[in-house]
Amino acid sequence: MATKYPHLFEPIVLGNQVFRNRIFGAPTGNEFDPQSVAASYYERKAAGGVATVTLGSGVISAAARMSDIGVPLWDHNNLKGRQGIADIARRITRHGAVASIELCHGGNACYFSFSQGFPALGVIDGVSPLGHEIKAMNEDQIMAIIEEYAQAAKFAKLLGFNMVMVHGGHGFLISQFLHESNNRKDKWGGSIENRARFANAVCDRIHQVCGRGFPIELRMVGDEIWDGGYHIENGIAQAVQFDGHADLLNISTGSHEVNEVFTVTHPNMFLEDGCNAKWAVEIKKHVKQTPVGALGALSEPEQMEELIASGKVDVVSMARAIICDPDMPNKLREGREDEVRKCMRCLHCFSLHITNGPITCAINPEIGHEYDNHLPLSPFRPKKKILVAGGGMAGMQAAITAARNGHEVVLAEATGQLGGGLLCEAKVPFKEKLMQYIDLQRRTIGKLPIDVLLEHPATPKLADAIAPDAIIACLGATPIKPNIPGIDEPNVFQAEELYLHPEKAGKRVLIIGGGLVGMELAIFLSMTQGCECQIIEMDSNLRDNGEMLHGLAISTQFTKYGIKVSTSTKALEINGDGVLAEFTGTKPIPGRRFALPLYPADAAEGTHLYEADTIAYAVGMQPRRQEAFDLRNCAPIFHQVGDCCVPRNIYFATSDAHFIVNDLGIVK
Fold first, then answer.
1. What number of H helices and E strands is found in the chain?
2. Which pLDDT does position 1 carry in this prediction?
């Protein structure tokens, strides 16, 4: 057999278009970047073997904009813009992938268009999620929007795209038509046939304008999974109506406009692999003509192969999995599944995209820098002997990059295994993918010519013996022990110890510190030990370290497990009954938050005794700067990377290590 996953790599024909396998690239926007940078980002996906690469946020008209970004598919006269979009399509198709683009209209969520003076229109009268007064569209307006979809698709085809995805989900215009609240009295509302009429009219008109052989992928929501949304019975009824109108049904879930389900639409690390595929599997049972695609936390090849081999779905779609490893399809086809870098579902890519623009990956330093890879950032230089001090996240990546660039590498780690401080989370169920990544890095190091010295602290004496040309200090950080009376009591633990030995926790756990370490510890102990957890935090907000969407996911777990939080609360002392704390009176700045919600203090002033059987502290990390400084004069070249410089997150550890080592050059 040529491949271990024959059904996953069986071609499929939609319309007149051949797709080389069943792995479809779900839309990911890259609208912030210059077009040359965005083109390299999309091209890299196509080169990795995926069947389709889909541009996100193609906007059909100036009145349809949810934000000030997006691909303007109505702006036909912008020659430079046209050329840039066409270049992306060419770069995708020249690698054998099908170029697709998402067609979007926000309906009553067109916040940016409303701010620019466009009328606030929607399916029915009402109020937008941001408070705009919405007026229901009339018949002429509805027909005009249908034509705008068709003309946007025609323009995309002219620019070289082979398919379009009509976005019919996540709370936007088409899903607003489909929602059970659509009580219009004309042919566009009321019954399921009428509510589905708009989506079918859009698909039919695109086929009329672009040809019946031009495939349309219709994204729909199988189950909105929140109390005010519709559920799978409605999703099935919709799919039956769409059968034969679209060429592929892409079954998503949730809504972008409802915070509590956003990180189910884009699955978080607390959910199981393939968590949203069940909606596609159920819908596939009821449609007769149109193929059905599943998506949502798909990264395990055996699961994807089974879904297709069993006939439960026809294709599998993924976004972050292909960001994390664009080469996943090629690796799976070639039998190199042990080399696949699997998405941790940490939502770093999406969080950064929302806040700062570029899409990057916590564990793949190439992502966001695809364009840079075409430039001579790493000049040819003589081979160097490089000592990497520390075998944590930064150290492993530094060693791998250096070895791949042709240098002689010695990796010295003080403990008996590679992986660093994060190894304490090996028992945490929602960190399974993190452990898989650490194992992948270890295997990669084992395949490269890297001299690994375990139980060898990187000291000046060791450096003198090795005589390196360069030292990359990746020595990490140690947990801070707060100066609180009672901190040395036997029922008080540093968070790392409870990650390693959760059985030591009593029924009632008080966690001092509301950063990611403390918050995730509360979830872990609640999930696995049934503990009743309370977090106290001195600041007026919990701290997600910029990972806003992971913070949003954490808040759903707090609700699920009844985890209590009191911010603006300072621990004063630990005694036999628990922790005596003082309320600082500091209040957070109110406002709409797309992240961790505001958790107020239990009181505005005074003190309170938090009764607890077990106390844990997670109040920050102390960089091992002095150990790094001790090495600075032991080689002509010295760099300090990762937490021993400034404690941050996995992204900065892997990315900084990769690029700093790249600066040393590639060996001729």
1. 21, 31
2. 58
The phi-psi region of residue 85 (left if phi > 0; otherwise alpha if psi is between -120 and 50; otherwise beta) is: alpha
Residue with tokens 């409605």: 234
Q: Distance between CA atoms of 263 and 265, rounded to whole angstroms? A: 5
Of 219, 288, 211, whose CA–CA distance to 248 is shortest?
219
Buried b / exposed e over 239-268, threshold 16 CB at 10 Å, is bbbbbebbbbbbbbbbbbbbbbbbbbbbbb
Q: What is the pLDDT of residues 593-622, one digit of tens each?
A: 788 999 999 999 999 999 999 999 999 999
At 404 the pLDDT is: 96
Q: How far apart, in Å, are the Cα atoms of 53 and each of 167, 318, 469, 587?
A: 15, 10, 43, 46
Q: Can you read off the two tokens belonging to residue 298?
A: 């798909």
User: How many Å is the Cα radius of gyration of the chain?
Assistant: 27
* Model confidence pTM above 0.70: yes
E strand or H helix at 412:
strand 408-413
Residues near 347 by Cβ (< 8 Å), separated by ≥ 6?
Answer: 263, 266, 268, 547, 549, 550, 553
User: Locate tokens 């330093």: which residue?
Assistant: 365
Would you state the structure tokens that stand for residue 203, as one six-digit string? 């698909």
Given a contact cutoff of 8 angstroms between Cβ atoms, the answer to whether 44 and 13 are in contact is: no
Q: How far apart are CA 295 and CA 315, in angstroms?
A: 9
pLDDT at 75: 86
The sign one gets for the Cα dihedral 629, 631, 637, 643 is negative
SS in 3 state form for 630-651? CCCCCCCEEEECHHHCCCCCHH
Beta strands in 513-630, from DSSP E residues, in sequence order: 532-536, 564-566, 569-575, 578-583, 607-611, 614-617, 621-623
With a CB cutoff of 8 Å and minimum separation 6, the contacts of 465 are none
Tokens encoding 493: 């633990």
Among all chains, which residue has been given the structure tokens 């599997």? Answer: 281
Indicate if the alpha-carbon torsion angle 110, 297, 277, 295 is positive or negative.
positive
